[in-house]
Automatic annotation (TrEMBL):
This is RNA polymerase sigma factor, sigma-70 family. NCBIfam families: sigma70-ECF. GO terms for molecular function: DNA-binding transcription factor activity. It comes from Flavobacterium micromati. One of its GO terms (biological process) is DNA-templated transcription initiation. It comes from the Bacteria.
Amino acid sequence: MIKLNYLIESLKKNDEKAIRDFYDENKIGFFLFAKRYNLQSDDICDIYQDAIVALIENAKKGKIDDLKSSLSTYLFGIGKCMIFQKFKKESRNCAFDECEEVEVMYEEYNEERINLQIIELQKGFGKLGEQCRKLLRLFYYEEKRLDEILSDLGYINKDVLKSQKSRCLKQLKVLAKI
């Protein structure tokens, strides 16, 4: 609970290092979670960043001072609501109608499960080949566009790079048992 309280206080103070660390720790897990909703990577990135901003704002307003879940669980809940709101705007079907405030722990994504998935992702990432690690790091952590990665890693065309990124993600999912 000390770490949770420390993180909340760090968010309230706009501690850039703590925010960046939290952002990086949860990004791959959030992307894998959001991929199951068949969203484009750009949309997932936008939703993730919006969810982080909402989390910080809620911390500053004192809305999460008595949080019963981890910040990661709360963040995923915010992201899930934002995904469903996006579907609602696009008139896509979804089973979740209302999502004004996230103050409950989502059973489907409880803290223990998310933490285990993050650990498995980290282990799986370490087992990937050098090229896959570079590619996924550039795309997800450094948020580079495929055109930039194309020249950085020496790929000949964008379609080959997309296929390689897809294979790397599939391999990561297998290694992480997700």
